[in-house]
Amino acid sequence: MQQQPSSNGILHGQPTDQVVLVDIVSSLSSPYFLQRKPSKAPLTVPLTVPQPQSGEPFDQALAERHAARRQWIQTSLAHLQNEFKSCLPLRLSEQLQNTTIADLDVQSANDVYDGEPDLLAFQENLGAAWINSYHDSDTQVDLVPILHAISLVDIYGSIHYNSLSNWMALNITIDKDYEYMIPPKSSFLLGPFTSTLPVFEAAFGKSSNTPRFDFMLLDPPWNNRSAKRAKHKDSYKTSTFNVYDLFKLNISESLYDGGVVGIWLTNSTKWRTFLLEKLFPAWKVEMVAEWMWVKITVHGEPILDLEHPVRKPYETLILARPITTTGPSGPASSNNRPNLQDKIIFATPDIHSRKPCLKGIIEPYLSNSDPRCCEIFARNLTEGWFSWGNEVLRGNWRGFWT
User: What's the domain range around 163?
Assistant: First the structure.
């Protein structure tokens, strides 16, 4: 029988457990009256990736970190197979097919769906003209009074929100009208990080009267070898985003003193060092926990050989809190919320770059019972959250639901 996952996407375990099993598609915010289409048939067998000719890892520090993590991952895999076996195999359907893929990059190559608008392509001609016309006084726009289709030109570069406690359908005119499903109490900013940063600062910075966020999540397009080789349509991001622009984001002005910032990180030692030794000190935050998303097949196996010297079957989420006189976890330790600790999230991969939605997993760790949360470089909207990115509406196109 196919599993009926809970609304937070957790198939087995509790949000605060050290090991949880998650279904990515069902973790995304979705109307109760619609069902999301499976994005692609999940892998049933691990990927086969050629060994490097030298047989040696090109990132020795990664190899050392992996050696330190190996036992933790293997123990968690055993826990998955023993304790979660009632959930395996995952997401059985007629779409399932045994597939052995020689190149991991090709596995994510075809992520454009029939009829889906290409938000990136239509934004290309908007950027320069919008930057020249932007003014700090631009206001946030309530979508509820908008009864007709709104142009992408009007959506671009300004904050729009659904003030209702219900889902709403929004028609956006691009080359023609497209319907998007907007979650309750959600808001969004469509546009590239660097050029629309002034909009974010005006709305949520020190000069605004808006309450700070309890949780800020980022998934930057880190430059890496796979992105350069990949043929998927998102490979442009590594050339249009300058990772050093992250220094311009003033976390201390937007994050509550007892809040949490999380940032998805590739396995590159270069970017890990950049994050921990340069960016976090500039943001005045300190790492408190590390969550690993271990990518598995429907049978609970890692999608890649754990001992491959170059590629690993996991990505990392680094969690940090503001550095205060009471320590990085400071004010949050005074309430009944659990302390952040290392965690493994098992999930089968979905479309390129899509991560498990963390709403149901992170909220138990936050100080406020009704937390304010923000996702930057988002590719879909989350109920009650503010989301920002140049593809922020992509996952909310009506064509992704039956």
Answer: 111-209+394-402
The pLDDT of residue 324 is: 77
Is residue 178 located within the same domain as residue 64?
no
pLDDT attached to residue 307:
87
Residue 381 lies in a domain: no
Q: Are 349 and 362 in contact (CB under 8 A)?
A: no
Which residue type sits at 63? Answer: A
CA atoms of 218 and 378, how far apart (whole Å): 8
The Cα–Cα gap between 5 and 258 comes to: 31
The answer as to whether 388 is a domain residue is no
Report the distance separating Cα 192 and Cα 188, nearest Å: 12
pTM, to two decimals: 0.89
Alpha-carbon span 38 to 47, nearest angstrom: 20
> Do 333 and 235 belong to one domain?
yes
Domain assignment present for 103: no
Ranges of residues in the chain with a pLDDT under 50 are 1-6, 92-103, 105-110, 227-239, 327-334
Q: Do residues 200 and 316 both lie within one domain?
A: no
395: its two tokens = 């996952």
Residue 344 in tokens:
């493994």
Burial class (CB in 10 A: 0-12, 13-18, 19+), 268: middle
Q: 240 and 353 share a domain?
A: yes
As a whole number of angstroms, the distance between CA 16 and CA 341 comes to 9
Residue 366, SS3?
A: coil
Q: Measured in whole angstroms, how far is the alpha carbon of residue 285 from the centre of its chain? A: 20
Q: Are residues 137 and 70 in the same domain?
A: no
Distance CA 41, CA 187 (A): 31
The confidence score (pLDDT) of residue 99 equals 45
The per-residue DSSP string of 275-317 comes to IIIIIHHHHTEEEEEEEEEEEB-TTS-BSS-TT-SS--SEEEE
Q: Which residues contact 270 (CB under 8 A, 6 or more apart)?
A: none
